[in-house]
Specification:
This protein is an all-beta fold. About 0% of the residues lie in helices and about 35% in strands.
Length: about 650
């Protein structure tokens, strides 16, 4: 099966970079004990498989979404075929067949703003396909004329309420690395980019190499696309290149300013190879997030630092590089990443030969692990570890975590959630083994300090395969409506697999799926830059849902004790596609016990405060402003915090945009 080629050596000896490997844990941090977090319990396996074999799974992260709006989520995952599975049982709902592999995470979003979800898939053989909620093909395009579509994201680039599809090219060529389609499958004006004849340097994108987010607070989105060079392409929503700071030279754009370990070399403009190293971005999936809570987002890209004096180049270590919108190195109050941390001993690659073990792609996740208000940067590496860098440029506690098992073992992109509600985040990832060793990888659960809480072996390979693991990020969600989280993984040789996570009814999901969300934009939840002003628009009072009515997406039944429920509001009561929040009246009826309801964005984290509190048997109402999901679905989540079922009514009177 096809793999890619990069400019780095296939297999090199691990570089020994002699610095202390462990740092004392942050004062006051509390460690979770294994007994406080229950072990994952296998729920179902072989999702999407055939009776005697499974298609090979790659790096695609599963999506959890209620495609048909019946209140029961589906799991959508791609290996070669794309399948939609019943979330509770893993039974097949539909299959979209294809002979080319799916590399990027399947995106799920309401492309047109009509209240129905679409499934967006990038594949080999230069394929981009959009499916409707029932698995029918809406449209298919060939964005580049060749290569593989490994880079995929969906976002509203110009804040008009309609989403665009962003794809990247996994093949050679110094321009036209990114392309953008509108919801109907038309190439947007200004794309593909970079355009022929423009300044700058670039090459192919061999992983999920784009992040899309509003970096300057104007509502429109910027695109960050590292390529198989030491240059980063940065574009606005029209495909125009973003300017770099004049400290690098007057009139330069991002793609003209090479990145090196030493920022002084960036300023000089060239490296003395052999003594001054630089990163290659072939496998680099960028992420964007407000790292320190100051309201401004930073760009994080994990690069493969290499020695450019050798032929072929010698890979040395993976390291995060942090940037501002003007391409300068990111700094903040009490932290500064202009000078990079020194890598730990043994940070070199254990292998870069996919015939030995499938490639470790350094996809980062951003999450505040210890509750200090600052996000850590987590990523897997070819050194066989999962890293977690704090903004002070240290790895706290027991980080980095060595992936256990015989032979070489690599880790997937992690997901992060506060599973037990104690204010610290647990880290969940999967692993896979060296091919000659065989066996299975594991589903790992770590504490916020990098201590193993659980390591559960993945199912045995189904069919003739000799090993099993999971290369892509797991996904977290309530797939069966029991009010607790499940984790779903796409495996190499046993299809999609789901595990129950007992005791997680109060969990907070911090980074819940591959690339941070179902749009696969690489944008962390949280501040989107300096806040845009919101304008209120009144609506004639209208009932959005009432659980006393007949069972349905906006009707019954009553919400059970401790349960969560997702309500799709798109196209209801005149709420437009670009609405950011609603003004509503929340009413509780016939509660069996005292408690409270929380209502929040369908793609957001469970807030720490409730919207309405109530006594048993009493009707209680309150006004609320409720944020809507920003993934195009305009959903909200509801959680009943009482010890008994209760009915909930929501009436809207206006919206914000």
């Amino acid at each position: 099966m096809a793999h890619y080629r990069t400019v780095v050596a296939r297999t090199v000896a691990a570089a020994l970079l002699m610095v202390p490997a462990l740092v004392a844990s942050r004062a006051g941090a509390q460690e979770s004990s294994p007994s406080a977090i229950a072990a994952p319990v296998l729920k179902w396996q072989r999702g999407g498989c055939f009776s005697s074999w499974c298609q090979t799974g790659w790096y695609s992260s599963p999506a959890i979404a209620d495609l048909d709006r019946d209140g029961a989520p589906e799991v959508v995952w791609g290996s070669y075929d794309v399948v939609a599975l019943d979330g509770a049982t893993g039974a097949l709902r539909w299959r979209a067949t294809n002979g080319s592999r799916v590399w990027p995470g399947v995106a799920v979003a309401d492309l047109t703003g009509d209240g129905t979800l679409e499934v967006v898939v990038g594949r080999g053989s230069d394929q981009l396909t959009v499916y409707d909620a029932g698995g029918g093909v809406v449209w298919t395009r060939n964005p580049f004329g060749g290569g593989e579509v490994r880079t995929l994201a969906v976002e509203d680039l110009d804040t008009d309420g309609v989403l665009e599809v962003v794809v990247g090219r996994a093949s050679g060529g110094s321009t036209r690395q990114l392309n953008v389609y509108d919801a109907a499958g038309n190439v947007r004006s200004g794309w593909p980019a970079r355009r022929d004849g423009e300044p700058g340097y670039g090459w192919g994108m061999y992983n999920e190499n784009v992040a899309v987010a509003d970096l300057d607070g104007d509502g429109d989105k910027e695109l960050i696309g590292p390529t198989d060079t030491h240059y980063v392409t940065a574009l606005d929503g029209g495909g125009n290149q973003l300017p770099a700071s004049p400290i690098y030279g007057a009139g330069k754009v991002w793609s003209q300013v090479g990145v090196h370990v030493d920022h002084a070399v960036d300023l000089r403009g060239y490296a003395n190879c052999g003594v001054e190293h630089r990163p290659n971005w072939a496998d680099s999936a960028p992420v964007i997030g407000d790292l320190d809570g100051d309201g401004v987002r930073e760009v994080v890209i994990v690069g493969n630092v290499y020695n450019c004096a050798t032929n072929p180049y010698t890979s040395l270590y993976h390291m995060p590089f942090l940037f501002r919108l003007d391409r300068t190195r990111a700094t903040g109050a009490g932290w500064d990443w202009t000078v990079l941390p020194t890598p730990a001993a043994g940070s070199g690659p254990l292998s870069e030969d996919y015939d030995v073990i499938e490639t470790a792609v350094p996809n980062p996740a951003l999450a505040d692990l210890d509750g200090d208000g600052r996000k850590e940067i987590l990523y897997p590496s070819y050194d066989g570890r999962l890293h977690a860098w704090s903004l002070d440029k240290t790895e706290q506690g027991s980080w980095p975590y060595d992936v256990p098992g015989s032979g070489i073992r690599f880790a997937s992109e992690p997901v992060v959630a506060d599973l037990d509600g104690d204010g610290t985040g647990e880290v969940i990832f999967t692993s896979w083994p060296q091919k000659s060793v065989g066996g299975t990888g594991q589903l790992h659960v770590l504490s916020h300090l990098g201590v193993s809480l659980h390591a559960v072996s993945l199912p045995a390979p189904h069919g003739s395969a000799t090993w099993n693991g999971a290369l892509g990020a797991p996904s977290l969600g309530d797939v069966d409506g029991d009010g607790e989280l499940e984790v779903v993984v796409g495996t190499v040789s046993s299809g999609a697999v789901a595990y129950d996570l007992p005791g997680t009814s109060n969990a907070r999901v911090l980074w819940g799926t591959g690339r941070g969300g179902l749009r696969r934009t690489g944008a962390a939840p949280g501040s989107a830059g300096p806040p845009r002003s919101s304008r209120f628009y009144a609506l004639t009072p209208c009932r959005l849902f009432d659980t006393r009515e007949a069972a349905g997406p906006l009707g019954g039944p009553a919400i059970s004790a401790g349960a969560r429920r997702l309500f799709p509001l798109g196209g209801t009561c005149g709420i437009p596609p670009d609405a950011r929040a609603i003004s509503a009246n929340v009413t509780v009826v016939a509660a069996g016990a005292a408690g409270s309801f929380v209502l929040w964005a369908g793609d957001g984290d469970l807030p720490g405060t409730s919207n309405v509190s109530f006594a048993a048997g009493r009707t209680r109402a309150n006004n609320a402003v409720i944020e809507l999901a920003r993934d195009g679905t305009r959903t909200i989540q509801v959680r009943n915090g009482a010890a008994a079922a209760a009915h909930l009514i929501l009436d809207v009177n206006g919206y914000f945009r």
